[in-house]
Prior knowledge:
Blueprint: H1 28-31, E1 38-41, H2 44-57, H3 64-78, E2 87-90
Parallel strand pairs: 1-2
Amino acid sequence: LPTVQPHATRVHPTPLVITEGIHALWDEGVCQQYDFALYVDIDETQRRKRWLERNMRENRGATDHMWRTTVDALRHHIAPAKAKAHLTIDNGQDAATVRAF
């Protein structure tokens, strides 16, 4: 925007490793190596909508049985990792309302 004045911040390099993925918090040994863990969540309605759109776009099919299998796997394998995160954010939330720790 024309009203925003550019500014610079000097950032000194430090060792940094970013790990992402639905199983990034699954292994306790790996979790102990993280300085900070973020879990990105979304409500069930939005999750199903995105799943359906992706499956239709990629021609994967989208039966109720496939959805139930996906949800069962999420609840059993992925959702428990939420408890290991230092911060959980809502991916359906307006980014302007998300505040840093």
